[in-house]
Amino acid sequence: MLLTARALKAGGCTVHCICGFRDEPFFTGELKAAADGFAFTTESGCAGTKGLVTGILEPGEYDAVYCCGPVAMMKAVTEVCIRAGTPVYVSLETKMACGIGGCLVCACAGKQGKNYRVCKDGPVFRGEDVDYDA
């Protein structure tokens, strides 16, 4: 996300980083420096706003949302973005063996029965295209 934030900023976009952490925040200085706005949550409440990232994310304020992290968080962010009508892009992580899409180790389920090869078709997908419950 740091490189995405920097590239968007270099392209003239306004960038806000909203991060969620389970407990102690990390890597915040670099993200804060790359963004026009920065906020974060911690589930434990040890720093930032106590709660989940979806508690402070207001997707209707943005042209698009870019997301990476645990699947449960990406699913929740996708759901709030869909309700707000804001495009959301998720960066998936998975085990990859061949890296060219032939072995299908990195396959993930998409909507309407479509499967994606994360290494070849992604790793970034429209959030609404991913079947998080498969």
Briefly say what this structure is:
With 134 residues, the chain is α/β, with parallel strands linked by helices. It contains 4 helices and 8 strands, in the order αβαβββαβββαβ.
List the keywords:
single chain, 134 residues, alpha/beta, Rossmann fold, Dihydroorotate dehydrogenase B (pyrk subunit), domain 3, 8 strands, 25% helix, 23% strand
Describe this structure in words.
The chain is α/β, with parallel strands linked by helices and 134 residues long. It folds into two domains: 1-91, Rossmann fold (3-Layer(aba) Sandwich), CATH 3.40.50; 92-124 and 129-133, Dihydroorotate dehydrogenase B (pyrk subunit), domain 3 (Ribbon), CATH 2.10.240. It is built from four helices and eight strands; from the N terminus they run H-E-H-E-E-E-H-E-E-E-H-E. The protein has helices at residues 2-10, 28-34, 71-84, 118-121, and strands at 16-21, 37-42, 49-50, 65-68, 88-91, 107-109, 115-117, 124-126. Strands 1-2-3 form a three-stranded parallel sheet. A hairpin with a 5-residue loop joins strand 6 (107-109) and strand 7. The longest helix has 14 residues, at 71-84. The chain is globular, with a radius of gyration of 16 Å.
* Termini separation: 25 Å
Low-confidence segments, ≥5 residues, pLDDT <50? Answer: none
- Second-tier CATH architecture of the largest domain: 3-Layer(aba) Sandwich
Mean pLDDT, all residues? 95
* The named CATH superfamily of the largest domain: Nucleotide-binding domain of ferredoxin-NADP reductase (FNR) module
Percent in strands: 15-25%
Number of domains: 2
The CATH topology of the largest domain is Rossmann fold
- What is the tally of helical segments? 4
Classified by CATH, the class of the largest domain is: Alpha Beta
